[in-house]
Specification:
Elements: H1 3-21, E1 24-25, E2 30-31, E3 35-41, E4 47-53, H2 62-69, E5 77-81, E6 86-90, H3 102-116, H4 127-141, H5 149-162, E7 169-171, E8 180-183, E9 186-189, E10 195-197, H6 205-208, H7 211-215, H8 220-235, H9 239-260, H10 267-284
Antiparallel strand pairs: 1-3, 2-3, 3-4, 4-6, 5-6, 7-10, 8-9
Length: 289
């Protein structure tokens, strides 16, 4: 189903889900790029979050991943309709994004890795297969990629080596400050992509989010590296592999920017995204192998 078709189907889907699951609206819905979350009360009057997602190849693992984690340390999945991409979740308040200290917040996220990254699960897609396909698309763009060719070459070479074998661990796939919320005094993950990959695959989103904090420093490149080292050290990851995965993911993002950047309405976002990815790539040059 296309994203537009999914959006067009939402009113009927939500109405049917509320009826079947005995849910009552309890606030205004919150919209994301590929999902909409509705605050609801269940039949017992307990506040929940009803999430409807546009199911795509790289997020089809969300429901089985949440089932596998069992709410530790992740949002609890109460009920799901995988065929229609609908989830009923525990209600959480307070995003880590609001945590004032970005360095401490980075360490909090990195501290979740060891609890989330269990051994690869056969019911999840292989994230490394996605990476190999995305790298093929990146290579096909040639000089259209808005970055020095040496970075694209680095990403293609390193990515094909890193993703040559199937992923070894269950990973979130998009774990950053907006995707960590509070359960009392505990921080838990939400919105996983959910697939098998290398643990070091997880680092990159922490570098391109909370960008204003990096820009506020006197040296953006050094601030990126400081955050990178904090995450790698906290999680006990292999530094070279983490660095190369950051390069791979940033270069793939640049390829997607080329594919998505033709729409005039996205021009400001396009330039901002490109600038962030190239800046991170340049910062990674100074990370010793």
């Amino acid at each position: 189903m296309s994203r537009q078709a999914w959006e067009d189907s939402l009113p009927r889907l939500v109405e049917d889900t509320f009826r079947r699951w005995h849910l009552t609206p309890d606030g205004e819905p919150m919209s994301g790029v590929t999902a909409r979350v509705y605050p609801v009360l269940d039949a017992d009057g307990v506040r929940r979050a009803c999430k409807s997602s546009h199911v795509e190849a790289d997020n089809v693992g969300e429901i089985p991943t949440l089932t596998l984690w069992g709410g530790r340390p992740a949002v609890e999945l109460v009920r799901a309709d995988p065929r229609r991409g609908v989830l009923l979740l525990e209600w959480l308040d307070g995003q880590l994004q609001e945590h004032w200290d970005a360095d401490e917040a980075s360490r909090i996220v990195a501290g979740l890795y060891g609890r989330l990254h269990r051994r690869a699960a056969p019911q999840l897609p292989d994230g490394h297969a996605f990476v190999r396909r995305w790298l093929g698309e990146l290579e096909g763009l040639g000089r259209a990629v808005p970055a020095p060719p040496r970075f694209v070459d680095w990403a293609l070479r390193a990515g094909r080596e890193l993703a040559a074998e199937p992923g070894t661990h269950v990973v979130h796939g998009d774990l950053h400050y907006l995707n960590v919320m509070a359960r009392g005094d505990e921080w838990v993950a939400i919105d996983p992509k959910g697939y098998n990959a290398a643990p070091e695959y997880e680092v990159a989103p922490l570098l391109w989010n909370r960008w204003a904090d990096l820009e506020a420093s006197r040296d953006v490149g050094q601030a990126i590296r400081d955050r990178f080292y904090a995450v790698v050290d906290t999680a006990g990851l292999d530094e070279r592999r983490a660095r190369d995965w950051v390069v791979v993911r940033c270069a793939i993002n640049l390829g997607w920017a080329v594919q998505d950047g033709s729409a005039e309405s996205r021009r400001d976002d396009w330039h901002g995204s490109v600038t962030r990815q190239v800046t991170i790539l340049k910062a990674m040059q100074a990370v010793e192998p």
